[in-house]
Amino acid sequence: MKIKTILTLFLLTLIYGKQFAQTFTPESEDDGVKVPSSKLLISGIGDGPLFNGTPKFLELYVVEDVPDLSSYGLETIHNGKGTTGIEFTFPPIAASAGSYLYVTTDAVRFRHWFNFPPDYLVFSINFNGNDAVALYEHHTIVDVFGAAEEDGTGSAWEYTDGFAYRMKNKTNTPKFNSNDWLFSGAGAWNGESDNASAVIPFPDGTFNTKTNKRKRNNSAPKNHALSTTKGNLSVGISLESCIDHCCGERLGDGL
To answer: Quick check: is 169 in a domain?
Structure first.
């Protein structure tokens, strides 16, 4: 009797344990590994045709309300050398679902190109059109554009003097999938002076994972201090002050 009871419990565990596992199968998987969903993702990247290959910029899309952006950070992955860790951490402010965040290395030329100011001036996120970029949440990569172990020069995802833009309704993935992206092609912006007049313009603010009206990140202060890092030096820069008074001097392209 005791043996039968044990066998019955064992069979029930197998049956219902399997059903439980099937019920909680991750919605998104990457090579059998669970892909953590993220409230923030990379929706676009660009390498401009202006002085010193500017503006270099990222567009990020807020999938769900983020009460504290400091949970997220960015890293440039130069020349396929792999990831090393976060280079920039967002400030501890909120971001609303459906909004877009713009990060650049040159606020002056970004505003010239798009005719609106960026949200973050970050000198350390200084990529070229063959470099990948990773988005971290709590020091774990939750999204990436480009192949971390591949120099993008001559690849299908190269965006030198051009851009890449994520297809609508595609979710974050820590392993790059070029099928999720639209590409202008390298050199698409050669000779262009601004996005509005470009033959192939960057489709800013058009990505979404559901029906949302386009909006900026209205939760950020109008003239908030922008954070940037170079080595161990941390600097706070006022966006409006930089745009009005800085010459837009570069710190140098990615090596």
So the answer is: yes
> What distance in Å separates the CA atoms of residue 123 and residue 31, rounded to the nearest whole number?
34
In the block, tokens 């130069």 appear at 78
What is the residue range of 111's domain? 32-245
User: CB-based contacts of 32: which residues, under 8 Å, 6+ apart?
Assistant: none
Distances (CA, A) of 243 to 89, 95, 109, 111, 130: 22, 23, 9, 8, 28
Chain-centroid distance, C-alpha 6: 52
Whether residue 82 lies inside any domain: the answer is yes
pLDDT tens digit sequence for 91-150: 999 999 999 999 999 999 999 999 999 999 999 999 999 999 999 999 999 999 999 999
Does residue 215 fall inside a structural domain?
yes
Q: Is the peptide bond before 67 cis (omega within 30 degrees of 0)?
A: no
Which helix H or strand E contains 243, and what residues bound it?
Answer: helix 239-245
